[in-house]
Amino acid sequence: MDSEQTNYGFSPTNGNLRTANPLPRAVLRSNNFLLLDGEWRFAIDPDDAGLREGWYLAHQYDLTASWPGSVESHILEARGQQNTAAWHDRIVVWYEREFTLPERGDEGSHSMFQLTFGACGYETRVWLNGHLLTTIEGETVHYGEYTSFSFELQEVHLRPVNRLTVRIMDTMDAETPRGKQESHVYKRGGIWYQTYTGAVRSVWLEMVERNRLRSRVGVDSVIEDQLVRFNLTTRIHDPGPYTLRLQVFERFAKSAQPLAKAEYPMKLEAGQRQQRVVMELAGAQVWSNASPTLYRLVAQLIDADGYTAEIETHFGLRKIESRGRNVYLNNEPIYLDGILYQPGTATYEEMQRHMHAMKELGCNLVRVHIAGVDPRIYNLADELGMLLWVEVPSPHSSTPRSRENHRAELLRMLALIESHPSVVIWSLYNEDWGCQDIATNPATREYIIEMYHYMQIHHPQFLVVDNDGWHHISHEGRLKSDLLTAHLYTPELERWRELLDRMVQGEMEGVAVNPLVVGDPFYYGRQKPLIVSEWGGFGFVDYGGPADAEDRAQRIRDFKRELRQRPIAGDVYTQATNIEDERNGLIDPHTGALDVPPGLLNSNPAADEPAGPGSGI
């Protein structure tokens, strides 16, 4: 295969995070990169012989595949089939390509080459010129398929022309985080989908400093005190004294004086560590749906000789609270007009259209349903003023190993998403998937309680739901969830009124499919916000309701009216687009066109009208 592809050669990183950032991450680095997307050699390894036979040293590849792309699509192309490709237990595939090592810039000994996979999995091994690579976190095998991971390339292994080999393995293992992809437990059909795994996001080579800030920034603001807490990650090869310099600018003011500036001297050992620092940002405007004010952070790590490594990102200041029966954004009560969103196999461009369409529907919240999305979508939500409810892709069985995998996936996601003001709610589990024994197994409940407390302590900028839909955990009468949520499906308006009335009156049983609370007795007295986090589904044969667009729109209006007449804090309509067997979408999955009138899901249009100048913190 020709290594001189059209994307050969280092390109400068510039522009803003969404419109001009070609890399699927939420941080800009002022360096050069080489995108390795495009045609790769490809092989299916049905007998898993590649490791034994040393395919990473040499192998004859007879097929090609376009990266990024799913294993399923690559198998389909390789076999020349017209129907859906499927694998039923375990799949092993290999990819390989060459790249010419770009010339170094002026950085000299201060820099090194880094290889990053935007997402790939579930189990990924990578070789450079036959040498097995180790991630920055020390993994020779990377587990996970929803977040990025990186390798620092050693000089001794580099050549003028380099061979990159990737082995990807996935199974139907129910103990791994899968979301709604089929497994040994939940088979494809209805609400369960075909697997979509493998080389699903871009891969790139870039120059990075030996001593630098990694591409991850956490932000937690206390708006009453005019303080912002930044959580940064340092990567050091040369221990010694360093200075961390932070500068905050108006978002598009490239040459203006910073609004705030602070420096923090620190002595750093070799390796990777996190550091939280606090910075005052007097007079800053808060981020909200109506006024999504963003600021630009330039973070620099400066060594004793004055050499500077820099990253840039945007952030917003906002406060989300669960207080009494309401959700509060920046100390003001807000009703959550939400919609369930399952991106499935949508491209980045299609997801952009979906986000704009969901805002046109009148939503102020999107519940990204147990799936990973391109990180640039979070940036878009920040710009649009769209609240996001994100969820850990769930395993499909409840075991000690599935809980270990779940925790690892949660931590990987948090490291890369915690900077976005749009992300306000996290679900640990959904409808008992991966915690099926939550009502009977104390170990399962103890794990969920532990992770709920972990989130409260380490990530107080988010609301956390323990198990969305039902079976929330009560311990000593305290709900281990910031929201009391219920999934209510009925096409009948009278039955809908009955269910809502029983729920707001505090009935915990006979409302949803399962009791709303498990564990110790829980007595509802409006001490937690009630959210109907799934409802509707009109158009999906399993949920009933009218298929005609006009009738469906009127049914939605009628059901929304009943919600707003009761002390309920928000709702999430199911769902945004059609996906496989679920034909209940309101938005064309390809074009983003609405199938129903604009504003249909906005239950209080006046509340979302832009106000005057934003209030300061």
Automatic annotation (TrEMBL):
Query: Glycoside hydrolase family 2 catalytic domain: from which residue to which, for each copy?
Result: 323-536
Supply the alphabetized keyword list.
Glycosidase, Hydrolase
User: Locate the Beta-galactosidase jelly roll domain: which residues?
Assistant: 53-170
GO BP annotations, alphabetical order: carbohydrate metabolic process
A GO molecular-function annotation: hydrolase activity, hydrolyzing O-glycosyl compounds
- What stretch or stretches form a coiled coil here? none
Query: Which Pfam families does the UniProt record give?
Result: BetaGal_ABD2, Glyco_hydro_2, Glyco_hydro_2_C
> Which SUPFAM superfamilies does this entry report, sorted A to Z?
(Trans)glycosidases, beta-Galactosidase/glucuronidase domain, Galactose-binding domain-like
Describe the location of the Glycoside hydrolase family 2 immunoglobulin-like beta-sandwich domain by residue ranges.
224-318
Where is the segment annotated Disordered? 590-617
Q: Does the keyword Cytoplasm apply?
A: no
Protein family according to the UniProt entry? Belongs to the glycosyl hydrolase 2 family.
* Protein name (record): Glycoside hydrolase family 2
